[in-house]
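Archive entry: two folds, one per protein. Generate the first.
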Amino acid sequence: MEIVEGIGIGVAVVFAALLILFIRRALYTRSGGIIRLSVRVSTILDGRGWSPGFGRFVGDELRWYRMFSFALRPKRVLSRKTLAVERRRLPEGQERLSMPADWVILRCTSNHAPVEIAMARSTVTGFLSWLEAAPPGAVSPRLASQDWPAA
């Protein structure tokens, strides 16, 4: 009888964890301004270190949440004021296996530190519009390079 109780408790814990993940995701995605976004969290190995998640636009910030995390706070916050896009490229090598075929990788700097983000090609236009936009009277941040190769 103890084995059956142990299995039942284990199944209940797994079910509760999955339920919390889905509720968390539903709460963040219902308010709009959400994009699928992967961030490269490690550069130790070429083409590896990408973590899937979603980005949420909140004012002048892009808040990135890991897809499979119980955390309620964003893992990374990118400010529009300090973010600049250096270049964009298509996935290469191992990266092609870890992300959808129509995704583009943007190499950015944020507070003078490099960060790589990947998103769908159709999302890049909206992201760049958000990055260049500013409230009336404010100075809009500039993109670092306008001479991008066609992706």
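Generate the second and append.
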Amino acid sequence: MEKSKGAIEAEISKALTQWEKSYLGRGSLSVKTDILRDMVIVVLNGILTPAEYALCRDKEGLLSIKTTRNGLVESGQEELKQIIFSITGQELISFHTDISTQTGERVMVFKLSGNLEKEPS
């Protein structure tokens, strides 16, 4: 039996939370995953620590936090690629991410080789 779209989304959310905790040493407060055609869009809330919010009060600190946090996630891209492949069965074509230093929210977009919303033939 094939997994439903909702089951795949939940599995990705759970796997990325586990990855954050093991790779980054800290997980987000909440994770929401949505599949849209050939993209997996993940929104992670509660990423920044109180100290990081304090650093973000000026432009230099803000840029430092964005650069450091994005670098950490980018350095784990191979593991993320494997996680997404193991759950979806699709190759990763590209990966995009950014973090909001105002809301502490990270958005990840995984562009896949196939359409996950396509009806099975």
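Annotation attached to the second fold: The two ends are 14 Å apart (CA to CA). The chain is about 45% helix and 25% strand.
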